[in-house]
Write a structure and sequence with these properties.
It catalyses: 2 Cu(+) + NADP(+) + H(+) = 2 Cu(2+) + NADPH; 2 Fe(2+) + NADP(+) + H(+) = 2 Fe(3+) + NADPH. By secondary structure, the chain is of the alpha/beta class. The protein is built from 20 helices and 10 strands. Bound molecules: NADP nicotinamide-adenine-dinucleotide phosphate.
Length: 488
C-alpha cells in the first residue's frame, strides 16, 4: 500500500512516544539562538515544561523584555556556553553569521528548526547545511513542522507530532525526550537524509485534498452545466422565457445535492470494488491497483466534501423562500387561483411527499455531520476500532440509503413524466441515483450469507487454491484436524 503524504510519518517511521529508554529531562538547561517569533514561543513552552532556558541574542538588552522572566537572555556566545542542547531559531541565510561561535559550539547538539519558502529549495537540506558549517557539532532536525502558534497554545491545541531525524542516535534520543516533556509526540524519521523530506512537509498545500477537491469541482461543473441546460437554456430556447435569474440560487441548489450524494456514494464504492477484487482473486494479499489504493486513502476527504456540499444545500434550501422571485411567484399563483375561483389547492400526495422529503433530508444531514465529526483526528482517537468502524461504515451506509430515499422522494414520479425530459435529457436526480444504487445493491449482495462468509474468511487470511490445515468440530463436539484444499 503506497502511503499517502499525510500517512508517511506515522506508517513509515516509528513513534518514539512511550519509548522506555526516554527518561524525563525537565530541569535541564536548553539554549535557544535567536529571539524571533519561534524562539519566543519555544522559550515560553520550554519554561512551562520545567526547563531552564537561556536565549542567545545579538542584542540581549533590547530583546530580554520579550521573553518570560524565567528565561535568561544573554549574548549568543554566553548562552551557548551554558548548555549542551541548542535550538537554532535563525533562518538558513543567517547560519553563516554564527560561524564565530564554532569553538564554543563544538561537541554540542544543534537542533535545526528551520523551514524553506519553496519545496526542495536548496540542493542540501538546511540541517545538512548547518552540519557542514559546524562539523564538530551533532545536528538534529526537528520541530520545524510545529508553528510558533502551536508552541504557545499548547500541544493539545494543535499538531502534536514532532518529526525528528539525525545521524546520531543519542542526540536524536535527547531531542525526542525534550519534545516528549513539552507534550509533543516525537516521531523518528531516521537519519539526516530525511531532513529534506521533513523540511518539505510544512510547505505542502493540502496534499491529501487535491484529488477529492478536483473530483468535487469536476462533478459540480458537470451537474451545473446539465442543470443549466435543463432549467435555463431549455425554457429560453423552447418558450423564449428568461429564467437566467435561477442561476445563482436554484441551479446551484439543485447541483449541490447531486455532488453531495454522488460523492457520498464514492466513499463506499472503492470498498465495494476492493471486496469484488478480493472475492475474484480469493485472497486479501494481492495488491490493489494504484488508483484503487489512492481512492481508498482519500475516502475521508471525499466524505468531508460530501458533507460540505450537503450543508451548503441545506442553507441554500432554507433561503429559497427569502427570494423576491419566490414571493412574486406565490402572489402570481394566488391571483390565478382567485381568477379561476379555486378555493382548495391542497394536494394530499404532494403534502406527504414534501414532509417525507424534508424529514429524511434532515436525518441524512444529521448522519453526515456525525460522520464528519468522528473523522476529526481528536474525536477519532477517542473511539476504539469497533466504534469508529460502526460509525464510518454502518452509519455511513445508512446515511447513503437515507440520502437515496431523500432523492427518490424529491423525484417521485417525475422520471415517468415525459415533460420532464428537456432536450431528451432525463431529470438530474435519475442520473445521480446510478452510482449510489449500484453501491447499495452491491452491499446487499455482499450481505448474502454465502458471499459474506467467503469475504470474511478471505479477510481473515484464507486464500483460494492454497492447502491449509483445518480444524473441524466433530458431532461429539471434539475437534478433528486434517489437510484440505481451502477452495473446496
Ligand atoms: P524571526 O522572527 O525573523 O527571528 C529570527 C531571529 O534570528 C531574529 O530574531 C534574530 O535574533 C536571529 N538572527 C541571528 N542572526 C541573524 C542575522 N544575521 N540576521 C537576522 N536575524 C538573525 O524568525 P522566526 O519566525 O522566529 O523563525 C526562526 C526560525 O524558525 C526560521 O528558521 C524558521 O524557518 C523557523 N520556524 C519558524 C516557525 C514560525 O512559526 N515562526 C515555525 C517553524 C520553524 P537576534 O536579533 O536576537 O539575534
Amino acid at each position: 500500500m503506497s502511503g499517502g503524504d499525510m500517512a508517511k510519518p506515522l506508517l513509515g517511521h516509528g513513534s518514539m512516544e512511550g519509548d522506555p529508554s526516554i527518561t524525563p529531562a525537565a530541569g535541564r538547561t536548553i539554549g535557544v539562538l535567536g529571539s524571533g517569533d519561534f524562539a519566543r514561543s519555544l522559550a515560553i513552552r520550554l519554561v512551562c515544561s520545567g526547563f531552564k532556558v537561556v536565549v542567545g541574542s545579538r542584542n540581549p538588552k533590547r530583546k530580554a523584555g520579550l521573553f518570560p522572566s524565567a528565561a535568561e537572555v544573554t549574548f549568543q556566545a554566553e548562552a551557548v556556553k551554558k548548555t549542551d542542547v541548542i535550538f537554532v531559531a535563525v533562518f538558513r541565510e543567517h547560519y553563516s553569521t554564527l560561524c564565530d561561535l564554532a569553538d564554543v559550539l563544538a561537541g554540542k547538539i544543534l537542533v535545526d528548526v528551520s523551514n524553506n519558502t519553496k519545496i526542495n529549495h536548496h540542493k542540501e537540506s538546511n540541517a545538512e547545511y548547518l552540519a557542514s558549517l559546524f562539523p564538530a557539532c551533532t545536528v538534529v532536525k526537528g520541530f520545524n513542522v510545529v508553528s510558533a502558534w502551536t508552541l504557545q497554545s499548547g500541544a493539545r491545541d494543535g499538531n502534536k507530532q514532532v518529526l525528528i531525524c539525525s545521524n546520531n542516535q543519542e542526540a536524536k534520543r535527547t531531542v525526542a525526550e525534550i519534545a516528549q516533556v513539552m507534550g509533543f509526540t516525537p516521531v523518528d524519521m531516521g537519519c539526516m537524509s530525511s531532513a529534506c523530506e521533513i523540511e518539505n512537509i510544512p510547505l505542502r498545500l493540502l496534499p491529501a485534498w487535491k484529488i477529492p477537491i478536483f473530483l468535487a469541482l469536476g462533478l459540480f461543473l458537470c451537474f451545473f452545466t446539465y442543470n443549466l441546460v435543463r432549467q435555463v437554456i431549455h425554457p429560453y430556447i423552447r418558450e423564449q422565457k428568461n429564467k437566467f435569474y435561477k442561476i445563482p440560487i436554484e441551479v446551484v441548489n439543485t447541483t449541490l445535492p447531486c455532488v453531495a450524494y454522488v460523492m457520498l456514494s464514492l466513499v463506499y464504492l472503492p470498498g465495494v470494488l476492493a471486496a469484488c477484487s478480493q472475492l475474484y482473486y480469493g485472497t486479501k494479499y494481492r495488491r490493489f491497483p494504484d488508483w484503487l489504493d489512492q481512492w481508498l486513502q482519500h475516502r475521508k476527504q471525499i466524505g468531508l466534501l460530501s458533507f460540505f456540499c450537503a450543508a451548503l444545500h441545506a442553507v441554500y434550501s432554507l433561503c429559497l423562500p427569502m427570494r423576491r422571485s419566490h414571493r412574486y411567484q406565490l402572489i402570481e399563483m394566488a391571483v390565478k387561483q382567485a381568477v379561476e375561483k379555486k378555493m382548495n389547492i391542497w394536494v394530499e400526495e404532494e403534502v406527504w411527499r414534501m414532509e417525507i422529503y424534508i424529514s429524511v433530508g434532515i436525518i441524512a444531514l444529521g448522519l453526515l455531520s456525525l460522520l464528519a465529526i468522528t473523522s476529526l483526528p481528536s474525536i477519532a482517537n477517542s473511539l476504539n476500532w469497533r466504534e469508529f468502524s460502526f460509525i464510518q461504515s454502518t452509519l455511513g451506509f445508512i446515511a447513503l440509503v437515507i440520502s437515496t430515499l431523500h432523492t427518490l422522494t424529491y423525484g417521485w414520479s417525475r422520471a415517468f413524466d415525459e415533460n420532464q425530459y428537456k432536450f431528451y435529457l432525463p431529470p438530474t436526480y435519475t442520473l445521480t441515483l446510478l452510482v449510489p444504487c449500484t453501491v447499495i445493491l452491491a452491499k446487499v449482495i455482499f450481505s448474502l450469507p454465502c458471499i459474506q462468509q467467503r469475504l470474511l474468511r478471505i479477510r481473515r487470511g484464507w486464500e483460494k487454491g492454497r492447502y491449509v490445515k483445518f480444524v473441524l468440530p466433530s458431532a461429539t463436539g471434539e475437534y478433528s484436524s486434517g489437510e484440505t484444499s481451502s477452495n473446496v
